[in-house]
Amino acid sequence: MGKYYITTAIAYASAIPHIGNVYEAIFSDAIARFKRLDGYDVLFQTGTDEHGQKIASRAKENELKPQEYVNFITSEIKRIYDRVNISYDKFVRTTNKEHVLAVQKIFDKLYEQGDIYLGEYEGWYSVSEEAFINEKDLVDGKTPNGDIPIWTKEEVYFLKLEKYQKRLVDHIEKNPGFIEPISRKNEMIQNFLKEPLPDLSVSRTSFKWGIPVDFAEGHVVYVWIDALSNYITSLGYSPDKEQTEEFKKYWPANIHIIGKDILRFHTIYWPIILMALDIELPKKIFGHPWILFNKNKMSKSTGNVMYTDELVNYFGVDAVRYYVLHEIPYAQDGNITYELLIERNNSDLANTIGNLLNRTIGMVHKYRDGVVKKTILEEPFSLDLKKHALETLNNVREHIENIKIADALEEVVQLARLGNKYIDVSEPWQLNKAEDKKDVLDYVLYTLLETIRFIAVLLQPFLPDTALKIANQIKEDNLAFSTIKDFGFLESKTLEKATPIFERYDMDKKIEEILKNEQFKEKI
User: Fold this and answer.
1) Distances from the Cα of 463 to the Cαs of 18, 63, 210, 411, in angstroms?
2) For residue 212, what are the contacts with CB-CB under 8 A and spacing of at least 6?
3) Are 401 and 31 in contact (CB under 8 A)?
4) Rounded Cα gap, residues 155 and 253, in angstroms
5) Does the reported pTM lie above 0.85?
6) pLDDT tens by residue, the chain, 524 residues
């Protein structure tokens, strides 16, 4: 099937990430897992951006050296990613020696060929966002994120953007899938590319925690060249060396998954850096929406955040993965509350997927002493469950290809809904009473178990732990996609009694438990 290189934006190592930050990793993980199962040679990369003024300040506040501070934050990010089953292949750190050296060489090359020049910057700077802010973007003296910028004047190096602007616009027009969703593409064209691009500050002298510019004492490479270059330096790229086999194999990236708030940096600055280096552009840049907490943007400064550890403690890994994958729209911000999470857990996981498994295994024990007999008949009922099961993989694949992860997961849940409906349509309890319907009952029970096996196979990219739990209960260890090309892979077998794979929560009790815990945290 070929290679598939997928990246997240690298997390800024200034603080522990909340669920809105971790969502991007879970989203990308689902795509990476699906592509692996679908036969691709996948490289899934994530990591941490570990330089900058904010990190230096946080380290000082905690009486740590910057490197010690980022070591701690990065270890926490890795722990959280591991906890929610992020199956990354590479974890990049911008303090890694190889990255540092490659970034210095990239900066040198751009300077030597005249794309970078020395100048002076004077204007508004946001310490919180670590970005220079255009005056037209300020509202009541504040940045769009609510930070109060400071007036800054310093000697910096600039990257020429306008030189490559027409080439970038042409590329966007010739490659309609380069920036998605389309609303993000339109935003970049209308807000930034209609007018000549101002040159970009790519070095700083007002702080020291960064990669030194090796030909200009006192300058450190600014975030745009430092952090963005991780996508190629991790593959061994350096402009002063032969291209590595890994770089030749995986670049260009098939997709960069990023938050919509850093779209400009990835769709304008990054492509121009690559053009200046004479490197092919990534195939797609997808700007995902935000997760809002109770319809407000999550912000550590205002305290309205949900942290991944707490959500997993309350609901388990797969309930959290399910919610963020299923409930966040393709192109609009999604919303999360404890109440919504409980509702979705109960309706889709416990009452649909879990219920189908429990009911089916329960009937196998009630009517057949736990023995499921492989039986294939012409479909005797109005609902052809086998037909729907066989269509699901292609439907999921199409949605994944279009980066519509919620729709892909909904296909699997819909198959479970149809499985529950099939029980109602076929009425196994009536078939059990009829002596001449024994084979039909065997067929119904087998069809339900085989459909459940399809569900286990298809859930793997989204809810890997759940997929394994289902597979264990139906005693099936082969969950390859090749096993769901035909209906009838499951052999006759004896099953153990079913055990619930999802907890069904009482809304009031669960909310009371969470509120008590939140109050306890506030006291300490």
Assistant:
1) 20, 40, 38, 14
2) 104, 219, 220, 221
3) no
4) 34
5) yes
6) 799 999 999 999 999 999 989 999 999 999 999 999 999 999 999 999 999 999 999 999 999 999 999 999 999 999 999 999 999 999 999 999 999 999 999 999 999 999 999 999 888 888 777 777 877 778 888 887 778 888 888 899 999 999 999 999 999 999 999 999 999 999 999 999 999 999 999 999 989 999 999 999 999 999 989 999 999 999 999 999 999 999 999 999 999 999 999 999 999 999 999 999 999 999 999 999 989 887 777 776 566 789 999 999 999 999 999 999 999 988 889 999 999 999 999 999 999 999 999 999 999 999 999 999 999 999 999 999 999 999 999 999 999 999 999 999 999 999 999 999 999 999 999 999 999 999 999 999 999 999 999 999 999 999 999 999 999 999 999 999 999 999 999 999 999 999 999 999 999 999 999 998 877 565 43
Tokens 């199962």 sit on residue: 37
Dihedrals phi, psi of 334, to nearest 5 degrees: -105, 170
Q: What's the rounded Cα separation, in Å, for the pair 357 and 350?
A: 10
Sequence-separated (6 or more) residues with CB below 8 Å from residue 127: 53, 54, 57, 147, 149, 150
